Amino acid sequence: MNKLRSYGIVTGSYWAFMLTDGALRMLVLLYFNKHGYSPLTLAFLFLFYEFFGMVTNLLGGWLAQGKGLKFTLIMGLSIQPIALIALSFMNDSWGPSLTIPFVMIIQAVSGISKDLTKMSSKTAVKFLVPEDKSSSLFKWVSLLTGSKNTIKGLGFFVGGFLLQALGFRFGLWILAGIIVFVLILSLTSLPESIGETKSKIKFKKLFDISRPLKLLSGARVFLFAARDIWFVVALPVYFSSIFSWSHSQVGGFMALWVIGYGVIQAFAPVILKFWTRGEAPAGLAASNVSGLLVLTMTAIALLFGLNIQPAWSITIGLVIFGIIFALNSSVHSFLVLDYAQGNKAASNVGFYYMANATGRLIGTLMSGLLFQFGGILWALTGSAIFLIISFIITRRLR
């Protein structure tokens, strides 16, 4: 019962954080797009967010190894309200030379907060499930990851709504209040011992990980770069500028996509059980689902490039892509915990999510570059190329 209660608190904390994280992303993206910033500039606003996420995952895993996961979780939750309130002091009278660096720095702080919380929450699941229960681990991590993405999708809608209804500053204050409440709950309710190990790992040993985990991390870089190439800047700006959608409409579509993606992730064990015969997935499952992603994105890019019902091609195509991507991501999220060594679990998971943040960093930059110079088609094509690379790496897990 204590483990179930701890899982509930960890999951609730992660939910609240991802709600504010999704809302913050949509607030910043739509606010600056409204003020005429180019797609490439919009991408730069998120670069520090992703870069410091890379650093945080690596160092956070090492820190959690010695201090425990509650320490890093509380640290992550404590930093986010500071970032949100600080960003609310941005002034519309500032020029781009001041505004852009200021927002990049605040986004860096938010990125540190996000990845401390993410690494802590996901690693905690491994310590709350018995080591010999791989199928149970797959179910619990799928539920955590899927529900998190559903909540983050809701955050996209909340961000668009807050911007339209209350404005930039008041929206940020509301989000900060949510996190402060959850911080107090986590601080007073979680046991101190989650994730603590008797053996401390030296910093130079952080890269001493197994070959399967290295391959999985390499595939993750290109998998998430492929998603963010079209997701971060290209698609929201495309909808806003080409379709003339309002903030709420853009946020609503992005929200529905991520919510659906999260639901599929949560039910991945049920969907994949016929493929894996009821067992937890292995490298073969990751390879097969990765191949389906390549075919799907290639078809979307071809249909759009040939001007065959472009609006339907991109919207319906990306819904299908989201379903397959969710299954692939769920398999990855399980495998990283399965591959992680018990006494080095936090540092192993931190290394893996450093690779995840690297992919997001590359995808964010490429999203702005490709969309600015080649439109949405270049972004979709770039995504397909990155998925092919991810598939080639994933095949070696077999």
Automatic annotation (TrEMBL):
According to the UniProt entry, its GO molecular function terms are: transmembrane transporter activity
Q: What is this protein called?
A: Organoarsenical effux MFS transporter ArsJ
Keywords (alphabetical) are: Membrane, Transmembrane, Transmembrane helix
Keyword Metal-binding belongs to the record: no
Native source species: Candidatus Thalassospirochaeta sargassi
- Is Ligase a UniProt keyword of this protein? no
Q: Which NCBIfam families match?
A: MFS_ArsJ
* PANTHER family membership: MAJOR FACILITATOR SUPERFAMILY DOMAIN, GENERAL SUBSTRATE TRANSPORTER, MAJOR FACILITATOR SUPERFAMILY MFS_1
Record-linked InterPro entries:
MFS (IPR011701), MFS_ArsJ (IPR047769), MFS_trans_sf (IPR036259)
- At the top level, the lineage of the source is Bacteria
Q: Where are the transmembrane segments?
A: 12-32, 44-64, 71-90, 96-113, 149-166, 172-194, 215-239, 251-272, 284-306, 312-337, 349-370, 376-394
